[in-house]
Amino acid sequence: MDKAIIFDVDGVLLELTRPEEELFFKPLATRMDASTLSRDWNNYRLRNDEEIVREIVERQGWPASDALVIKQEYLALLEKALTEGLKSEAITGAAELLGTFAPHARLGIATANFHRAAELRLKQAQMWEAVSGTAFGAEGGGAKSAILARAIAATGLAPSQIIFIGDNVNDVQAGLQNEVHFIGFSTSPQRLSQLREAGAVNLSSDHHQTEKLVRELLNASI
Length: 222
What we know:
This protein folds into two domains: 4-15 and 89-217, HAD superfamily/HAD-like (Rossmann fold, 3-Layer(aba) Sandwich); 18-83. It has ten helices and eight strands. Helix 2 crosses helix 3 and helix 7 (144-155) crosses helix 8 (169-178). It has a six-stranded parallel sheet with strand order 5-4-1-6-7-8, sandwiched between helices. The protein has a two-stranded antiparallel sheet with strand order 2-3. 48% of the residues lie in helices and 13% in strands.
């Protein structure tokens, strides 16, 4: 396939629920007062799970090796919780969007979540198979632009043949820096305004509109 659509996960394919968010901090709660840690991902140096854990470990003066242990504990907790009732909530229309374009374009993800966390959550929502072939997460570090760059390289396609769909200002920046088509998605008018101010030209508030924009950007050939 000579076209690709790369998705952010949280806010585009899945909602990040409060219980899921708190699981991220649970391994830290056995080592410190985790209530003192910000739940606003933008308050950390880089909005990337690997980088956030590394920053907290560094700030606390713990051995650098603790970062990997904390990651492994978190992923084990997440996997267990997802088998015991925790639900990953799909964004309305996300599964249908993947189904529409899977036969016509290479689909993937570029997320600041750990790869395994994204896999576990998307599997439960029955969306993993569609994006698994080009799936990149926090591993390797860096800002979203670096994660997206790794995904783009894996497709082997020119940026003009790729669409990236995200819901945060750093997603807009990643799209611009990597020179791909970008669609800013959010059900929040305030968030859409922020994406527009950051430079997003194509905006969508529901995935019916997302589908139309994808077809327009890829010249209605898929």
